[in-house]
Amino acid sequence: MDKNGQPESPNLPQLLAQAKYWFDTAVSAAMEDAGERPVTLAQQNVFAHLAPDGTTISDLSRRMGVTRQSAHQAVHALIGMGLLAQVPDPASARSRLIVMTDEGRRVHLLAQSMIAGLEEELARRLGGATVAALRATLERPWGPPRPA
Known about the structure:
By secondary structure, the protein is mainly alpha-helical.
């Protein structure tokens, strides 16, 4: 513990958040370098949680861990950019699904290829075996979360 009673090193959730931030900012920079329009981290988060066949804003907000209003703002900015669209939900006459447009799919595929390149760069920096072990560990089922 330091003089303020804080742990000397970050805890696991902090380390995972730092790793996600590294990827998020690297993807943003790579997309901008490729001439794509900039999107915020919240807007990137929408793409990360959008189901292939579409997702309601309520489901997106739950998956993203944000308020419905925050998800709504990010979604509507992406609709304004032509990357997402709202369509009727075939399962519910009262709901609308958020889906990728053709342009949204193109941008999403480009971002996925850049993420793959970033994983390769990380393997060069940290070692292929280290990154493979990290991936294998994170892919294992963790079971349901329980309070401490």
